[in-house]
Amino acid sequence: MDRFSQLEFGEISPERKGSQGESIRDADYFYQEALRYWLVGDFELALRNYSRVLEKNSTVFDAWVGQVLMLIELGEYHEAIVWADKALELFPEHSELLAVKAVACLRDAKLEKAIAYSDNSVGKDNLTSRVWLARAEVLLDRKGLIAENCISKAVSMAGNMTPVIKLEAARLLWRKGNCSAAIGYLNDVVKVFPKSALAWYELGCCQAKLGLSEARATLEQSLKLRPDWDKARTSLKQLKKRGLLRRFFRR
């Protein structure tokens, strides 16, 4: 199913109706909600919806992966590892689960374990874009050129997930200081998902880091799409403060 083509950011997902007119909130409905919240940067609500998917249908593989990824986003690295292990009981030795477990270990400062799980994941069959993104994150600090090749490979094989994978690739590059490459991906993402507050936020942060004048408008767009987002509001305030300081010293 082309899940991503159904997303409408900033809006409530349309509910399907049963034969008696009742609302149908099945696993697919909650999966769409999880994706929507994920891509606007509300990782807590995305996590809740991935959990609801698994309550409805525990065999939805993508919901297990999404739940682990959201725990990583929230800094709950130990819990992410626990849930990755639970998922591996249902999907033994699955390359993508090993990959996201590698990321959780890396973020939890368990480098040797992260490398081991990543090595294991790329040795499996049916590799996915997320396997290569995880590989890139594990290698980026030590083997930058190889890591960048892994990112390119992840994007090239993403198919209908290309905008999402580009967003995740850009976030990784931005965290590692390669803002120029990140901006290239993010410009593509906001064309496809113009209501994604997360994409606009990441783009604004990269532009601000490079001192680009459009950073303010980009961050304002992110905050317009998600007015209650403290993270975006703080970044915009900091950018405005830097602008005031620059004007002060020029005078």
What is the topology?
Layout: E1 16-17, E2 23-24, H1 27-39, H2 43-56, H3 61-73, H4 77-90, H5 95-107, H6 111-122, H7 129-139, H8 144-156, H9 162-175, H10 179-192, H11 197-209, H12 215-225, H13 230-250
Antiparallel strand pairs: 1-2
Notes on the structure:
By secondary structure, the protein is mainly alpha-helical. The chain folds into two domains: about 20-155, Tetratricopeptide repeat domain (Serine Threonine Protein Phosphatase 5, Tetratricopeptide repeat); about 180-250, Serine Threonine Protein Phosphatase 5, Tetratricopeptide repeat. The chain is about 70% helix and about 0% strand. It contains 13 helices and two strands. The protein has helices at about 25-40, 45-55, 60-75, 75-90, 95-105, 110-120, 130-140, 145-155, 160-175, 180-190, 195-210, 215-225, 230-250; strands spanning about 15, 25. Strands 1-2 form a two-stranded antiparallel ribbon. The chain is globular.
Which regions contain 5 or more consecutive residues with pLDDT less than 50?
A: 1-6, 8-13, 247-251
Please, how many domains? Answer: 2
Question: Based on CA inertia axes, which overall geometry fits?
Answer: globular
- The CATH superfamily of the largest domain is identified as Tetratricopeptide repeat domain
CATH uppermost class of the largest domain: Mainly Alpha
Keyphrases for this structure?
251 residues; mainly alpha; Serine Threonine Protein Phosphatase 5, Tetratricopeptide repeat; 2 domains; two-stranded antiparallel sheet; 13 helices; 70% helix; globular
What would a concise description of this structure say?
This protein has 251 residues and is mainly alpha-helical.
